[in-house]
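Suppose you are handed a protein chain with no further information: no name, no annotation, nothing but its sequence. What can you learn? This example shows the usual starting point.
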Amino acid sequence: MRVLLIEDNERLSTLMHGGLTRAGFAVDAFGGLTEADEAVALVDYDLILLDLGLPDGDGMAWLKRLRTRERGIPVLVVTARGGLSERVAGLDNGADDYLVKPFEMDELLARCRALLRRPGTGLGTVLSVGNLDLDTAARQVRVAGQGVEVPRREFALLEILLRRAGNVVPRPALEEGLYGFDDEVTPNALEAHVSRLRRRLAEAGADVTIHTVRGVGYLLRVGVPA
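A reasonable first move is to predict its three-dimensional structure. Written in structure tokens, the prediction is:
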């Protein structure tokens, strides 16, 4: 899941970026609306975290403009503007949720997960294929009921493949979901993650297989390798 974070307070942005990354999100963080506009034009984000008081414009006005062209992206407003009238205005102008600063990281992450579980956003709590279960909230993978340790990036890869199980996921879609703009990505990074994940699942006795569709991407389904 890829998140756009728009926050001009450098210290807070760093803290939020770290918490979101540890929770398994790929994060692009910007301190202004101009950069955010450019990012939205390039990437299909799963979630936007938006501050309102920004150096190059008002976040509320930006949100209204966003909703004229991008209605489906969940937006969580994260701001120090905590008055009732401001919260109501935020929700009326297109925010899906509103979180007042200061806040605890656990609450921020819980609100992100709740937004992504809403109909149309495609983030169910538990994804299951064959004897493999992935709990997006608890960040746990189980094979036949037994827990399997899966590193953050492989967990994100597995989640994307599970959400589209039985369908080929193109390589660009996987890379977009796994890496942010600032991530250092080697040419064979995706192949390396897939290889390690395959080995991890096989060693755990999973009855699902990740197939390579040459020149296109990857496919997860129940069964042995082709």
